[in-house]
Design a protein that fits this description.
Blueprint lengths: L7 H10 L4 E6 L1 E14 L6 E14 H10 L3 E8 L3 H12 L7 E3 L7 E7 L4 E7 L7 H15 L4 E5 L8 H10 L9 E4 L13 E2 L3 H8 L6 H15 L3 E5 L5 E5 L3 E4 L12 H14 L4 H15 L10 H8 L1
Parallel strand pairs: 1-4, 1-8, 2-6, 4-5, 8-9, 9-10, 10-11
Antiparallel strand pairs: 2-3, 6-7, 11-12, 12-13
Helix pairs in contact: 1-10, 2-8, 4-5, 6-7, 8-9, 9-10
């Protein structure tokens, strides 16, 4: 079953409402560093390519890229995450400031490095190697209490909460439980969206929407997705396993499958040339959170997130989408 299309007028109205909405983003911030060069020969010392350096670029990754996407779409992100006491943390703060994302919610932990992914790529965007600097043990003690305190203070002015879990230590059972409690305001329950990792599936009970990709959904349910009917069954099983209100399964070229008690169906992929899918999930959850905060239904928010993903996969590396680009795509 295909979800009904979102009318152009309603879609543009929702995107216009993004501006100024406050989204609390809690999760694993990262710095993505790209070392770009040319490859013309193989090393005589080992069967590996020799990369002649051309340039170096920094990008925001993980929860930092989610917050960047919120800001680029016109929202106002409040970011809570962990950094080390190192030069990578300084560069990450500089990149966040340049993107219009505040850094007051970053908690410094001198016992761990700032999570940094260094990719060696060719000028044709082919990845040669990746080096990860990280310490992925769960935060605890005073560090965890500080994260909870920062998130609690920032939640008071938020229109939605977004959990960006990359299994790098920020998202613990206590952190998610506190965020779930915080979403219940005296007047309404604000949406809580989770970009998940399957080892933490039990932590997400009570979330508004969880957004696994198709491999994560298959792993969580021990079921295969080969058709829309498969996706429907997996969606129901995933919601049961995660105990969440809805699941939005991203399926690459097959689009997305939305599963909830009230509505379910496929959202066809937007036909575009794919350059790089890195960070596309960050764009999906950012657009989804803003749309729900703007008053969209689940189905409307999923369609808008699908259009945003269709734009960002045409760009290299972790990238963002602007309201103008989204308006153009919707037209």
């Amino acid at each position: 079953m295909t979800l009904p299309p979102l009318g152009a007028g309603r879609a543009h109205e929702l995107v216009d409402r993004f501006r100024g909405l406050s989204i609390l983003v809690v999760g694993d911030v990262m710095l993505d560093r790209f070392i770009v060069g040319s490859v013309t020969r193989i090393s005589p010392e080992a069967p590996v390519p020799i990369v002649r350096f051309r340039s170096e670029h920094l990008r925001l990754g993980g929860a930092a890229n989610v917050a960047h996407n919120v800001a680029a779409l016109g929202g106002r992100p409040e970011l809570v995450g962990l950094v080390g006491s190192d030069s990578a943390a300084d560069r990450l703060r500089e990149q966040l400031a340049a993107a219009g994302v505040g850094v007051d919610g970053l908690v410094q932990d001198a016992a761990r490095p700032t999570t940094e992914k260094v990719r060696v790529v060719t000028e044709r965007n082919q990845q040669v190697a990746r080096i990860d600097y990280e310490h992925d043990a769960d935060c605890s003690g005073e560090i965890e209490r500080t994260i909870l305190d920062r998130a609690s203070r920032m939640r008071a002015r938020s229109n939605a909460i977004l959990v960006s879990d990359y299994l790098k230590g920020v998202i613990t059972q206590s952190v998610v439980e506190a965020l779930l409690d915080a979403r219940l305001t005296p007047s309404r329950a604000i949406p809580l969206i989770v970009d998940p990792k399957i080892p933490h599936l039990a932590c997400y009970a009570g979330a508004t929407v969880v957004t696994p990709n198709h491999l994560e959904a298959e792993a969580a349910t021990q079921m295969r997705i080969r058709s829309d009917e498969d996706a429907r069954q997996v969606g129901v099983a995933f919601r049961t396993a995660a105990r969440c209100d809805a699941a939005l399964i991203t399926r690459g070229e097959h689009g997305m499958w939305l599963s909830s008690a009230g509505v379910e169906g496929t959202i066809p992929a937007v036909a575009r040339e794919v350059a790089d899918v890195t960070g596309a999930g960050d764009t999906v959850v950012a657009a989804l959170a803003l749309a729900l905060a703007a008053g969209a239904s689940l189905a409307e928010a999923a369609v808008l997130a699908n259009h945003a993903a269709g734009i960002v996969v045409g760009k290299f590396g972790p990238a963002t989408v602007t309201p103008d680009e989204l308006h153009a795509a919707l037209s």
